Amino acid sequence: MKHFTAEELVAVLTKIRRGVALTANESETLKLYLPLHLNSDRADKMAKLVEDIRNGKREPLSKKERIMMHQENMEQTLNNIIKQIPQMNDEQFTETCNMCEMLRSQIARH
Q: Are 93 and 13 within 8 A, CB to CB?
């Protein structure tokens, strides 16, 4: 998978801010750099799942279940970010760009 440069990342986030649709490749790549951003229902569900596993009420997730959960979480994160970015003020947008860039630069090092 191709990674974004710092400039490409800002360009994609700016596209979202302007209401321009992303390509499928842009969306998939952007997911790599987004901090987890779930709805409260989803976060509560995950917390309950972890609690049930810790208390022995449920078996740990299988590899397939972990992959599916991760994909669902990243899709929800992308959708939440796409909804929120156009409503952000300049300071919030800059903070979002900085958070995504921190993740991008960490991934780029590996």
A: yes
